[in-house]
Amino acid sequence: MLVDGPSGAGKTTFATAVGRRTGLRVVHLDDFYPGWSGLAEASRMVVEEVLHPTRPGYRRWDWEADAPGEWVALDPRESLIVEGVGAVTAASISAARELGEVLSVRIDAPVALRRARALQRDTGYGPYWDMWAAQEEAFYAEHGAVPVDFALTW
Fold first, then answer.
1. Is the pTM of this model over 0.70?
2. Count helices and strands in the chain by DSSP H and E runs
3. Residue 71 is part of which domain span?
4. Are 89 and 47 in contact (CB under 8 A)?
5. Which NCBIfam families does this one have (predicted)?
6. What is the pLDDT of residues 107-146, one digit of tens each?
7. pLDDT tens digits for range 71-90
8. What is the CATH number for 145?
């Protein structure tokens, strides 16, 4: 399952709930965005690393050191829920289909609600909101028209 949507939309809440009910492992792009300017790079990493057919995984991002951290290996036989801004692209859907069935979900919410949720979740996010929102805008200008199986607003 690939779950995408802008910051504060409810992706993590949704993916975590589905993961609990299904027993599927949830992989959060928040764990490997390479810093605050890394949305596009993390989206590429979903295709080339997380969904790699024989050696899937990702390099965790150490937010304190602002540097790459340890490699997290994933089991290539394990079904996953991959969630985060940048998770759904034509390339990620194609890569996931190579591994088996895939369900794609895009979640959204009004901007004011998303911002309030994001800042409540991470008090250090405030100074980066505009920078991240600009990356989201660029990402969705390129990938927002990719069809998904489910689109939710909450």
1. yes
2. 5, 7
3. 2-153
4. yes
5. PRK06547.1
6. 999 999 999 999 999 999 999 999 999 999 999 999 999 9
7. 999 999 999 999 999 999 99
8. 3.40.50.300
